[in-house]
Write a structure and sequence with these properties.
This protein is α+β, with helices and mostly antiparallel strands. It has one domain: Gcn5-related N-acetyltransferase (GNAT) (Aminopeptidase, 3-Layer(aba) Sandwich), CATH 3.40.630. It has four helices and eight strands. The longest helix has 16 residues.
Length: about 180
């Protein structure tokens, strides 16, 4: 699938970029240096500009092979990347995916991730025909979460400081 740009109200979601017009790599490096982000995104090991470039290129390849759909959550007026949200470990036959997200340290507490997660899940459930009932607790995965309160019955754990992973799945028959 080709990357999709999404208007999420106060925020704009687009694919990650590192080109002459827009460069998300400085934000990626800042997030990767933040211990709170790394606690919940340990695979985001970015030690230099080259690693950040590889990260952006990997996300583009993952879009192409339908293994991970990732969006930079941006300020619509400046294009500055504020966070990343994505669907990973996509299993089309099972109609399942994991939602992964993080918010840049200086951007936390603004409701960015609440809007981004809601937008991405609406897209997934409408476009990919996943059932909403499999992921009823998406609102707990927000940049406003400030405490750790596990809620495993619904498949999601509250994560402090703006990062989370949750499993979303379909409860509808595969042919619907």
């Amino acid at each position: 699938m080709q990357p999709i740009e999404i208007n999420a109200g106060a925020w704009y979601l687009r694919c990650l970029r590192a080109d002459e017009r827009v460069d998300d790599r400085p934000v990626l490096l800042t997030a990767a240096a933040d211990p709170d982000t790394m606690w919940y995104a340990p695979l985001m090991v970015l030690v230099d500009l080259r690693a950040a470039t590889d990260y952006v290129q990997r996300r583009a390849l993952q879009w192409a092979n339908d293994s991970w759909y990732s969006w930079a959550v941006c300020d619509p007026t400046t294009g500055e990347m504020l966070a990343e949200v994505g669907l990973r470990n996509i299993e089309p036959t099972q109609r399942t995916a994991e939602l992964a997200c993080w918010t840049a340290p200086k951007q936390r507490g603004r409701g960015i991730m609440a809007a981004a997660v809601g937008t991405v899940l609406r897209l997934a459930f409408q476009r990919r025909r996943w059932a909403v009932s499999g992921c009823t607790a998406w609102a707990t995965c927000t940049s406003r979460a400030t405490r750790h309160r596990p809620d495993w019955r619904r498949g999601v754990g509250w994560r402090p400081r703006g990062a989370c992973v949750t499993r979303c799945s379909s409860t509808a028959p595969a042919g619907t």
